[in-house]
Amino acid sequence: MGLSLVMLPPQTEVYRAWERRLAGDVPGVEVSVAETAEEAAAAIVTSDAAFGALPRELLARASKLRWLQCHYAAPPAGFYYPELIAHPVLVTNMREIFNDHLGTHIMAFVLAFARALPRYIPQQLRGEWRRLPDETLIHLPEATALIVGLGGIGAETARLAAAFGMTVIGTDARRKDVPPGVAEMHPPEALDALLPRADFVILTVPHTPQTEGMMDRARFQRMRRGAVFINIGRGMTTRLDDLVAALRAGEVGGAALDVFEVEPLPPGHALWTLPNVLITPHMAGNGPYLDERRYAILRDNARAMLTGGALRNLVDKAVWF
Predict the structure, then answer these.
(1) 30 vs 20, 33, 186, 312, CA distance in Å?
(2) Segment 61-64 long-range contacts (CB within 8 Å, at least 24 positions apart)
(3) CA 80, CA 320: separation in Å to the nearest integer?
Protein backbone atom coordinates (compact mmCIF):
# COMPACT_ATOMS: atom_id res chain seq x y z
CA MET A 1 0.00 0.00 0.00
CA GLY A 2 1.48 3.34 -1.08
CA LEU A 3 1.22 6.87 0.24
CA SER A 4 0.11 9.82 -1.88
CA LEU A 5 1.46 13.17 -0.65
CA VAL A 6 0.70 16.62 -2.03
CA MET A 7 3.07 19.56 -1.57
CA LEU A 8 0.75 22.52 -1.00
CA PRO A 9 1.47 25.99 -2.43
CA PRO A 10 3.31 28.29 -2.32
CA GLN A 11 6.25 26.33 -3.67
CA THR A 12 10.00 26.90 -3.55
CA GLU A 13 12.82 25.36 -5.52
CA VAL A 14 13.75 23.46 -2.37
CA TYR A 15 10.28 21.93 -2.08
CA ARG A 16 10.25 21.01 -5.78
CA ALA A 17 13.56 19.20 -5.36
CA TRP A 18 12.12 17.19 -2.45
CA GLU A 19 9.61 15.57 -4.82
CA ARG A 20 12.44 13.77 -6.60
CA ARG A 21 14.37 12.99 -3.41
CA LEU A 22 11.38 11.43 -1.66
CA ALA A 23 10.67 9.16 -4.61
CA GLY A 24 14.20 7.77 -4.33
CA ASP A 25 14.50 7.71 -0.53
CA VAL A 26 11.06 6.33 0.34
CA PRO A 27 9.79 3.81 -2.23
CA GLY A 28 6.01 3.71 -2.17
CA VAL A 29 5.52 7.46 -1.76
CA GLU A 30 3.89 9.26 -4.69
CA VAL A 31 4.47 13.02 -4.48
CA SER A 32 2.62 15.72 -6.39
CA VAL A 33 3.63 19.39 -6.31
CA ALA A 34 0.64 21.73 -6.42
CA GLU A 35 1.75 25.04 -7.90
CA THR A 36 -1.65 26.75 -7.65
CA ALA A 37 -4.68 26.72 -5.37
CA GLU A 38 -6.62 24.98 -8.15
CA GLU A 39 -4.04 22.20 -8.41
CA ALA A 40 -4.07 21.79 -4.62
CA ALA A 41 -7.86 21.54 -4.57
CA ALA A 42 -7.77 18.77 -7.17
CA ALA A 43 -4.90 16.83 -5.58
CA ILE A 44 -6.11 16.94 -1.97
CA VAL A 45 -9.19 14.86 -2.80
CA THR A 46 -7.14 11.68 -3.27
CA SER A 47 -4.12 12.46 -1.09
CA ASP A 48 -3.25 10.54 2.06
CA ALA A 49 -0.85 13.24 3.22
CA ALA A 50 -0.02 16.89 2.69
CA PHE A 51 2.91 19.21 3.33
CA GLY A 52 2.33 22.88 4.15
CA ALA A 53 -0.61 24.93 5.38
CA LEU A 54 -4.06 23.42 4.88
CA PRO A 55 -6.88 25.99 4.73
CA ARG A 56 -10.47 25.12 5.58
CA GLU A 57 -11.59 24.83 1.97
CA LEU A 58 -8.95 22.19 1.26
CA LEU A 59 -9.65 20.24 4.45
CA ALA A 60 -13.31 20.03 3.43
CA ARG A 61 -12.24 18.26 0.22
CA ALA A 62 -9.70 15.94 1.88
CA SER A 63 -11.61 12.68 2.05
CA LYS A 64 -8.52 10.45 2.54
CA LEU A 65 -6.14 12.70 4.47
CA ARG A 66 -4.35 10.96 7.37
CA TRP A 67 -1.24 13.07 7.94
CA LEU A 68 -0.30 16.74 7.59
CA GLN A 69 3.35 17.82 7.84
CA CYS A 70 3.49 21.44 8.96
CA HIS A 71 6.36 23.37 7.36
CA TYR A 72 7.01 25.40 10.54
CA ALA A 73 8.28 24.50 14.00
CA ALA A 74 5.54 26.69 15.49
CA PRO A 75 3.22 28.05 12.81
CA PRO A 76 1.57 31.46 13.07
CA ALA A 77 -1.91 31.92 14.47
CA GLY A 78 -4.53 30.63 12.06
CA PHE A 79 -2.75 27.43 11.04
CA TYR A 80 -4.83 25.50 13.59
CA TYR A 81 -8.59 26.11 13.45
CA PRO A 82 -11.55 24.24 14.96
CA GLU A 83 -12.21 22.01 11.94
CA LEU A 84 -8.58 20.93 11.71
CA ILE A 85 -8.37 20.31 15.45
CA ALA A 86 -11.50 18.15 15.33
CA HIS A 87 -10.38 16.23 12.22
CA PRO A 88 -8.64 12.85 12.79
CA VAL A 89 -5.68 13.89 10.63
CA LEU A 90 -2.32 13.59 12.42
CA VAL A 91 -0.21 16.76 12.35
CA THR A 92 3.57 16.89 12.73
CA ASN A 93 5.79 19.96 12.80
CA MET A 94 9.44 21.00 12.32
CA ARG A 95 10.45 21.55 15.94
CA GLU A 96 13.97 20.68 17.14
CA ILE A 97 15.76 21.77 13.95
CA PHE A 98 16.68 25.20 15.32
CA ASN A 99 17.98 24.21 18.75
CA ASP A 100 21.67 24.93 18.16
CA HIS A 101 21.14 28.22 16.32
CA LEU A 102 18.63 29.55 18.83
CA GLY A 103 20.66 28.41 21.82
CA THR A 104 23.68 30.27 20.45
CA HIS A 105 21.61 33.40 19.83
CA ILE A 106 20.22 33.37 23.36
CA MET A 107 23.70 33.05 24.83
CA ALA A 108 24.89 35.91 22.61
CA PHE A 109 22.21 38.05 24.27
CA VAL A 110 23.15 36.78 27.75
CA LEU A 111 26.87 37.43 27.24
CA ALA A 112 26.21 40.87 25.78
CA PHE A 113 24.34 41.93 28.92
CA ALA A 114 26.80 40.20 31.22
CA ARG A 115 29.58 42.41 29.79
CA ALA A 116 27.44 45.57 29.45
CA LEU A 117 27.70 45.67 25.64
CA PRO A 118 24.27 47.35 25.22
CA ARG A 119 25.79 50.29 27.14
CA TYR A 120 29.20 50.26 25.48
CA ILE A 121 27.90 50.08 21.90
CA PRO A 122 26.16 53.49 22.09
CA GLN A 123 29.39 54.91 23.55
CA GLN A 124 31.31 53.50 20.59
CA LEU A 125 28.91 55.16 18.15
CA ARG A 126 29.50 58.48 19.94
CA GLY A 127 33.27 57.97 19.94
CA GLU A 128 33.24 58.05 23.73
CA TRP A 129 35.96 56.30 25.79
CA ARG A 130 34.46 55.71 29.23
CA ARG A 131 34.61 52.69 31.49
CA LEU A 132 31.39 51.91 33.29
CA PRO A 133 31.27 50.80 36.94
CA ASP A 134 31.69 47.11 37.65
CA GLU A 135 28.11 47.11 38.93
CA THR A 136 26.95 47.20 35.31
CA LEU A 137 28.46 43.72 34.76
CA ILE A 138 26.80 40.40 35.61
CA HIS A 139 29.04 37.65 36.99
CA LEU A 140 27.50 34.59 35.36
CA PRO A 141 28.61 32.00 37.98
CA GLU A 142 26.50 33.98 40.46
CA ALA A 143 23.56 34.51 38.07
CA THR A 144 20.33 32.57 37.68
CA ALA A 145 18.65 31.95 34.33
CA LEU A 146 14.94 31.15 34.30
CA ILE A 147 14.09 29.36 31.05
CA VAL A 148 10.38 29.37 30.29
CA GLY A 149 9.99 26.31 28.08
CA LEU A 150 12.51 23.48 28.47
CA GLY A 151 11.90 21.78 25.16
CA GLY A 152 14.68 21.32 22.65
CA ILE A 153 15.63 25.00 22.47
CA GLY A 154 15.36 25.53 26.20
CA ALA A 155 17.35 22.40 26.97
CA GLU A 156 20.18 23.43 24.63
CA THR A 157 20.19 26.89 26.21
CA ALA A 158 20.34 25.32 29.66
CA ARG A 159 23.38 23.25 28.65
CA LEU A 160 25.20 26.31 27.37
CA ALA A 161 24.24 28.51 30.32
CA ALA A 162 25.36 25.88 32.82
CA ALA A 163 28.72 25.68 31.02
CA PHE A 164 29.20 29.35 31.91
CA GLY A 165 28.49 28.52 35.55
CA MET A 166 24.95 29.85 35.65
CA THR A 167 22.26 28.33 37.85
CA VAL A 168 19.44 27.26 35.54
CA ILE A 169 15.86 26.88 36.65
CA GLY A 170 12.92 26.42 34.32
CA THR A 171 9.34 25.53 33.57
CA ASP A 172 7.84 23.16 31.04
CA ALA A 173 4.33 21.92 30.36
CA ARG A 174 5.26 18.50 28.94
CA ARG A 175 8.74 17.44 29.85
CA LYS A 176 9.18 14.78 32.54
CA ASP A 177 12.97 14.32 32.53
CA VAL A 178 15.22 17.13 33.77
CA PRO A 179 17.62 18.26 31.00
CA PRO A 180 21.36 18.38 31.70
CA GLY A 181 22.39 21.63 33.32
CA VAL A 182 18.99 22.35 34.85
CA ALA A 183 19.04 22.66 38.63
CA GLU A 184 15.26 22.84 39.04
CA MET A 185 12.34 22.12 36.71
CA HIS A 186 8.81 23.22 37.57
CA PRO A 187 5.35 23.20 35.96
CA PRO A 188 4.18 26.37 34.19
CA GLU A 189 2.00 27.26 37.17
CA ALA A 190 5.16 27.99 39.18
CA LEU A 191 6.25 30.84 36.90
CA ASP A 192 5.08 33.69 39.15
CA ALA A 193 7.00 32.28 42.11
CA LEU A 194 10.16 31.80 40.02
CA LEU A 195 10.32 35.21 38.35
CA PRO A 196 11.78 37.08 41.37
CA ARG A 197 14.70 34.62 41.53
CA ALA A 198 16.10 35.19 38.04
CA ASP A 199 18.74 37.53 36.64
CA PHE A 200 17.71 36.45 33.12
CA VAL A 201 14.16 35.46 32.14
CA ILE A 202 14.33 33.61 28.81
CA LEU A 203 11.19 32.75 26.81
CA THR A 204 11.40 29.89 24.33
CA VAL A 205 7.73 28.85 24.35
CA PRO A 206 5.59 28.76 21.20
CA HIS A 207 2.47 30.85 20.67
CA THR A 208 -0.49 28.81 21.91
CA PRO A 209 -3.84 29.72 23.47
CA GLN A 210 -2.18 29.23 26.87
CA THR A 211 0.94 31.36 26.22
CA GLU A 212 -0.58 34.31 24.36
CA GLY A 213 0.18 37.48 26.33
CA MET A 214 1.70 35.54 29.22
CA MET A 215 4.38 38.18 29.82
CA ASP A 216 2.39 41.24 30.83
CA ARG A 217 2.98 44.16 33.20
CA ALA A 218 2.10 42.13 36.28
CA ARG A 219 4.71 39.52 35.41
CA PHE A 220 7.35 42.10 34.56
CA GLN A 221 6.72 43.65 37.97
CA ARG A 222 7.36 40.25 39.58
CA MET A 223 10.80 40.02 37.99
CA ARG A 224 13.88 40.90 40.03
CA ARG A 225 14.53 44.61 39.59
CA GLY A 226 17.33 45.02 37.05
CA ALA A 227 16.86 41.54 35.53
CA VAL A 228 17.07 41.03 31.76
CA PHE A 229 14.16 39.75 29.69
CA ILE A 230 14.89 37.69 26.54
CA ASN A 231 12.32 36.44 24.03
CA ILE A 232 13.21 34.26 21.03
CA GLY A 233 10.04 32.14 21.10
CA ARG A 234 7.05 33.92 19.60
CA GLY A 235 6.15 37.59 19.72
CA MET A 236 2.54 37.05 20.75
CA THR A 237 3.66 35.71 24.14
CA THR A 238 4.76 39.19 25.25
CA ARG A 239 2.79 42.44 25.54
CA LEU A 240 5.21 44.98 24.09
CA ASP A 241 3.44 48.02 25.58
CA ASP A 242 3.78 46.41 29.00
CA LEU A 243 7.45 45.67 28.39
CA VAL A 244 8.11 49.29 27.35
CA ALA A 245 6.35 50.52 30.48
CA ALA A 246 8.37 48.14 32.67
CA LEU A 247 11.65 49.23 31.06
CA ARG A 248 10.82 52.91 31.49
CA ALA A 249 9.87 52.33 35.13
CA GLY A 250 13.11 50.48 35.80
CA GLU A 251 11.22 47.31 36.75
CA VAL A 252 13.13 45.42 34.03
CA GLY A 253 16.82 46.21 33.62
CA GLY A 254 17.12 45.31 29.94
CA ALA A 255 15.54 43.34 27.13
CA ALA A 256 16.74 41.36 24.13
CA LEU A 257 14.11 40.46 21.56
CA ASP A 258 14.07 38.55 18.29
CA VAL A 259 10.27 38.25 18.03
CA PHE A 260 7.51 40.83 18.43
CA GLU A 261 3.73 41.18 18.68
CA VAL A 262 3.80 43.07 15.38
CA GLU A 263 6.43 42.19 12.78
CA PRO A 264 8.30 43.99 11.42
CA LEU A 265 8.62 46.14 14.52
CA PRO A 266 7.23 49.49 13.30
CA PRO A 267 9.59 52.42 12.71
CA GLY A 268 9.33 54.83 15.60
CA HIS A 269 8.43 52.15 18.14
CA ALA A 270 9.86 52.97 21.57
CA LEU A 271 11.91 49.77 21.68
CA TRP A 272 14.16 51.01 18.87
CA THR A 273 15.58 53.79 21.02
CA LEU A 274 15.16 52.66 24.62
CA PRO A 275 18.50 52.16 26.37
CA ASN A 276 19.63 48.65 27.27
CA VAL A 277 17.54 46.98 24.58
CA LEU A 278 18.89 44.63 21.89
CA ILE A 279 16.80 43.85 18.81
CA THR A 280 17.29 41.31 16.03
CA PRO A 281 14.75 40.92 13.16
CA HIS A 282 13.30 37.43 13.81
CA MET A 283 16.47 35.69 12.62
CA ALA A 284 17.65 33.85 15.74
CA GLY A 285 16.89 30.49 14.13
CA ASN A 286 18.88 31.25 10.98
CA GLY A 287 21.91 29.09 10.23
CA PRO A 288 23.19 26.25 8.09
CA TYR A 289 21.62 22.84 7.44
CA LEU A 290 17.99 23.84 8.09
CA ASP A 291 16.61 22.62 4.76
CA GLU A 292 18.34 19.26 5.22
CA ARG A 293 16.88 18.96 8.71
CA ARG A 294 13.41 19.81 7.40
CA TYR A 295 13.71 17.24 4.65
CA ALA A 296 14.84 14.57 7.11
CA ILE A 297 11.67 15.06 9.18
CA LEU A 298 9.45 14.90 6.09
CA ARG A 299 11.29 11.80 4.84
CA ASP A 300 11.22 10.01 8.19
CA ASN A 301 7.54 10.72 8.71
CA ALA A 302 6.63 9.60 5.20
CA ARG A 303 8.46 6.35 5.90
CA ALA A 304 6.67 6.00 9.24
CA MET A 305 3.28 6.46 7.58
CA LEU A 306 4.13 3.66 5.15
CA THR A 307 5.49 1.24 7.76
CA GLY A 308 3.36 2.05 10.78
CA GLY A 309 6.31 3.54 12.66
CA ALA A 310 6.28 6.41 15.15
CA LEU A 311 5.95 9.89 13.73
CA ARG A 312 8.48 12.58 14.64
CA ASN A 313 7.17 15.76 16.25
CA LEU A 314 3.54 14.76 16.60
CA VAL A 315 1.42 17.79 17.55
CA ASP A 316 -1.33 18.12 20.13
CA LYS A 317 -3.60 20.11 17.83
CA ALA A 318 -5.74 21.49 20.67
CA VAL A 319 -2.75 23.44 22.02
CA TRP A 320 -1.09 24.03 18.62
CA PHE A 321 2.17 22.30 19.62
Answers:
(1) 10, 10, 45, 20
(2) 62/89, 64/4
(3) 6
- pLDDT for residue 166: 98
| Paired strand residues for 200 | 145, 228
Hey, do 3-96+288-319 and 99-279 end up sharing a CATH topology, with the first three levels equal?
Answer: yes
21 a catalytic residue: no
**CATH of region 3-96+288-319:** 3.40.50.720
Write the Ramachandran bin of 268: left for phi over 0, alpha for psi from -120 to 50, otherwise beta: left
d(CA 19, CA 128): 56
Is residue 282 part of the annotated active site? The answer reads yes
Residue 18 has a pLDDT of: 96
Give the contacts of 67 (CB within 8 A, at least 6 positions apart): 48, 49, 50, 89, 90, 91, 92, 301, 305, 311
φ/ψ of residue 2, rounded to 5: -90, -175
- The answer, as to whether pTM is greater than 0.85, is yes
- Low-confidence stretches of the chain (pLDDT < 70) are none
What does the pLDDT read at residue 100? 98
The 10 Å Cβ neighbour count of residue 245 is 16
Out of 3.10.180.10, 3.30.300.10, 3.40.1010.10, 3.40.50.720, the CATH code matching 99-279 is 3.40.50.720
Delimit the domains of the chain by residue range. 3-96+288-319, 99-279
Q: Which residue type is seen at 65?
A: L
Catalytic residue (choose from 66, 87, 282, 299): 282
Identify the pLDDT of residue 91: 98
Say if CB 114 and CB 137 are below 8 A apart: yes
Q: Residue 73 carries which DSSP code?
A: S
Separation between Cα atoms, residue 273 and residue 118, nearest integer Å: 12
Catalytic entry in 95, 105, 234, 239: 234
CA diameter of the chain: 72
